[in-house]
Specification:
The structure holds two protein chains of two kinds. By secondary structure, chain A is α/β, with parallel strands linked by helices. Chain A has 13 helices and ten strands. In chain A, strands 1, 2, 3, 4, 5, 6, 7, 8, 9 and 10 form a ten-stranded mixed β-sheet that branches. The chains are: A alpha/beta, B mainly alpha.
Chain lengths: ~350, ~525
């Protein structure tokens, strides 16, 4: 008998602990939201939405607080690596707590579209951004962009010796001088672009040459840091990594600069960051309002003035003044759809042992 | 004068058999072991379900594509060498601190544990920024040894606390020198603890990813993460993870016959002897140099790079007040996980040691397996189950605590095992023969005996949870940050100066329980009782 009493006591204790912990975890109920909405429909004010954020967290925080002020909707933010969030959304399925997904790249959004997890965006939201930056099916919208460039160490490399095309980097004179991060999501689009513009054989030859010339780094942040330190002389990155490094090390610690390839070169690619509303969201109107805000003039200006150094995609909003103007960029003529999900490039990398 | 339990098969054997027939399982043990088994099975079931979706054809294609033989060879040679190094460092350091007259023992006891509280990323990054050419096999061996040796050190400390010094005295009186006493008596007595620690290192190396990414060393886990991150293919990644499970099972099965041999508990009249520390004499300086070098490499380099970030980083500001909230969350979740893990580890280990049969041994081995699984797999498994069957708990503090408890249950099991090996079953039998119920015997006899081991188990889980990132990012309540998540936010944005205080606080938070444990250990050594 006493054993049974003991068991009951144990179960009761465990139950009490579970209950306490569950209560402790559910802070921030919807009633916390203070409605201060002015311009947005009154029905939205006081609602709470959940944002799964794979973008630069500091910029997202600025966007969220501007939106909260503007609409009276409270936004709970959950930040993580975009691919992990994507995997999580797939596992969550129709029970996902996420209302909006905001990412650094578009392939993960394309993947969720293929799984039929995204809702159609409002036509006015899609119309705010040039169609070539949006999902062809209207499931996600482009928000901002960055351009792939070459970073070089200013004390080791003279600007005159820099290549006009990314294709030259496979030649032997760059042996031991190049730094790359082939496991980053930004690397496969380069291979895909070369495949589309120069053919599959040329792409494989290029990648093998680059592999022979390169030091391999875990991520773009390390590539730009090591080029700045002189460990590598040149490196393949997106432009904004260099600007963010400049903010951290200051002019005194800066020993590198950016180099843009010739017009239309396959190395010169626009990588787009996008946003989507989840089909499973039970706050469709508020979620749509958030994505509409991201591409509104106000939202795009937040991006332009933040320290993310990305190009806002809405026509008429200019980027940070230290960036090369958007209309002077001459990226390769290749669409986001043509870049696809990058699986062929991934297999090529694996074949050569880069991953 | 103490007498020692000798394996005399005649009278004692009959007694033991008679008692084990009458011995009943306390219900709490059954209950706890069942919960532990169910929790550990969750991620494994998830893996199998996902792997089935990938299918055998796709999986075998993946194995071919990923140059599996090379990856497995890389994994194997890293595991063997790093585990051996961790064993030497962990045992050596534990012996120096617990059993010799080395100066500054209290300080070493705390410092030697702390590398566990530094995220691998910081250790790897510290070394790579000190010496950028540090890449490949040797770099991986060094960095992993420096960050994992506490997994041997702490169980070894718990094991040493259980060894009756009288055994060593007898050996000395029979003419053995200090080294022979250590080798033939002390080390053998510590065996269950040390083997457990080595198992944790081996399994942990199988699942490690972040540090290898920094030093560009490719093990099998790299293939798994490629499928997750670039291929966006959870099914394929899970199918590949089953290879890790197989390797983990091989390691677990390999250790089993090693621990089964021998008998470690003392039982005899009178109190335990107080510890007589070995006088190091002229070996004091070399021993001090050894410990200093180890701490400088494992602790000094990463902390040095944090200080460098603080001084040189453009993003350095006074951390916002929210750092205290983040620290409180970290401490709260980690303490919850440490308590839950330890509570689950006791019945699992006790069942396997006191009621040894196929089922109880299987549960104990199962409980060690999560150490070989990438955190992402365990976390996605919990996501998948909780959204279907426990939606109100999804992304709650409780779920995060449960996730940590599953991930770090192996650490708790090894800590408890190290202590329980020295708690003599005969004392429990005496307790029961006096009419006490099994549960009451547990509370009044066994628990006090294994208390230091429970402290070690708690500490291991607490420190590991406080730096955990992957599962935290997936399962934390939305809007809640820990020190690890904020550290991640800043470092993924180059704001190393702003990130440094968060890593520093992680180390400090680990130092508090480490200090308390070292005081307790010192008290045990003085009083001569466990």
């Amino acid at each position: 008998m006493r054993n049974i009493k003991l068991l009951i006591a144990a179960v009761a204790t465990l139950g009490a602990i579970l209950l306490l912990a569950a209560c402790g975890g559910s802070n921030g109920s919807p009633t916390d939201a203070v409605s201060s909405g002015t311009s947005a429909p009154a029905s939205l004010a006081g609602q709470t939405i959940t944002l799964y954020n794979g973008q630069h967290e500091q910029t997202t925080a600025l966007l969220v607080s501007a939106f909260e002020k503007h609409s009276g909707v409270k936004v709970k933010v959950r930040s993580n690596d975009e691919v992990e969030l994507g995997n999580q959304i797939v596992q969550e399925g129709s029970n996902s707590p996420a209302d909006v997904f905001y990412t650094e790249n578009t392939p993960v959004l394309e993947h969720l579209r293929e799984e039929s997890l995204l809702a159609q965006l409002a036509p006015s939201t899609l119309a705010a951004i040039p169609a070539r930056f949006n999902s062809a099916q209207g499931d996600w919208v482009g928000v901002s962009a960055r351009v792939s460039v070459l970073v070089y160490n200013t004390s080791k490399v003279s600007p005159a010796s820099l290549p006009s095309s990314i294709m030259e980097l496979s030649q032997p004179q760059w042996k031991g001088k190049l730094g790359i991060a082939p496991s980053e999501t930004d690397f496969q689009p380069l291979i895909t672009a070369i495949t589309k513009l120069k053919g599959a054989a040329a792409a494989e030859k290029w990648l093998a040459g680059v592999q022979a010339n390169s030091k391999i780094y875990p991520d773009n942040e390390t590539v730009v840091t090591q080029v700045n330190n002189g460990e590598s002389e040149v490196g393949l990155i997106n432009h904004y990594y260099w600007y963010r490094l400049r903010d951290e090390v200051g002019q005194g610690g800066l020993h590198s600069a950016l180099h843009y390839y010739a017009a239309g070169d396959p190395g010169d690619l626009l990588n787009v960051s996008g946003a989507a509303v989840l089909k499973s969201s039970s706050h469709q109107a508020a979620a749509q309002a958030f994505v509409a805000f991201l591409v509104s003039k106000e939202g795009q200006e937040v991006i332009a003035y933040s320290h993310s150094y990305e190009y806002p995609l809405r026509p008429g909003v200019s980027p940070a003044s230290s960036l090369r103007p958007f209309n002077q960029l001459q990226p390769a003529s290749i669409s986001l759809a043509e870049l696809g999900d990058g699986s062929a490039s991934l297999e090529l990398e694996q074949k050569l042992g880069l991953l | 004068m103490n007498t020692f339990a000798s394996p005399s098969p005649t009278v004692e054997g009959r007694w033991a058999r008679a008692w084990s027939r009458r011995r009943r399982w306390p219900l709490v043990t059954v209950f706890g072991a069942t919960i532990a088994a169910v929790l550990v099975l969750l991620p494994l079931v998830f893996l199998v379900i996902q792997a089935q979706q990938a299918g055998w054809d796709a999986t075998s294609r993946l194995l071919l594509r990923h140059n599996t033989a090379v990856l497995l060879w890389n994994t194997l040679r890293l595991v063997v060498v790093s585990t051996a190094l961790c064993a030497v460092l962990g045992v050596g350091a534990a012996w120096c601190v617990q059993r010799t007259t080395i100066p500054g023992r209290r300080m070493w006891a705390v410092l030697l544990v702390l590398p566990l509280g530094i995220p691998d990323f910081v250790i790897g990054f510290g070394w790579v920024s000190l010496e950028p050419s540090l890449q490949g096999y040797l770099a991986a061996v060094m960095i992993m040894t420096l960050s994992l040796y506490p997994l041997v050190y702490l169980p070894a400390v718990a094991g040493l606390a259980g060894v009756d010094p009288a055994l060593e005295e007898v050996a000395r009186s029979l003419g053995l020198g200090p080294w022979q006493v250590f080798w033939r008596v002390t080390l053998r007595q510590m065996l269950p603890a040390v083997l457990g620690g080595c198992l944790l290192v081996t399994l942990g190396l199988l699942a490690e990813y972040g540090a290898f990414e920094i030093v560009q060393y490719q093990t099998f886990t790299v293939a798994i993460f490629t499928e997750f991150k670039l291929g966006f293919d959870t099914a394929a990644a899970c199918a590949l993870s089953l290879v890790l499970v197989a390797l983990g099972i091989a390691a677990l099965a390999g250790e089993l016959p090693l621990v089964r041999r021998g008998r470690w508990s003392r039982s005899g009249a009178g109190a335990r002897r107080a510890i007589v520390r070995v006088k190091l004499g002229r070996w004091t300086i070399p021993a001090l140099l050894g410990l200093s070098t180890l701490c400088a490499m494992a602790l000094g380099v990463p902390i040095g790079s944090l200080v460098y970030w603080l001084i040189r980083g453009g993003s350095t500001t006074l951390p916002s007040a929210s750092i205290l909230t983040d620290a409180a969350h970290t401490a709260e979740f980690s303490a919850g996980a440490a308590a839950l893990s330890t509570a689950l580890a006791i019945p699992v280990t006790a069942a396997a040691m006191r009621h040894r049969n196929r089922l109880t041994v299987l549960i104990e081995r199962l409980a060690l397996l999560p150490q070989a699984l990438p955190g992402l797999v365990v976390a996605l498994g919990l996501v998948s189950f909780s959204v279907r069957y426990a939606l109100p708990l999804y992304q709650s503090a409780l779920e995060l605590i449960v996730a940590y408890a599953i991930l770090f249950l192996p650490l708790a099991v090894v800590g408890v095992r190290a202590a329980l090996a020295h708690a003599p079953p005969r004392l429990e039998e005496v307790g029961r023969s006096l009419g006490r119920r099994p549960a009451s015997v547990w509370l009044r006899v066994t628990l006090p005996l294994i208390a230091p081991g429970l402290g070690v188990a708690f500490l291991l889980v607490f420190i590991s949870s406080s730096t955990e990132l992957t599962a935290t990012l997936l399962l934390r309540p939305t809007g809640v940050d820990t020190l690890a998540t904020q550290f991640w936010v800043y470092t993924s944005d180059f704001s190393y100066g702003a990130a440094a205080p968060y890593a520093g606080l992680m180390v400090l938070i680990s130092a508090v329980p480490a200090y308390l444990l070292s005081r307790r250990m010192a008290a045990i050594a003085r009083r001569g009782q466990a």
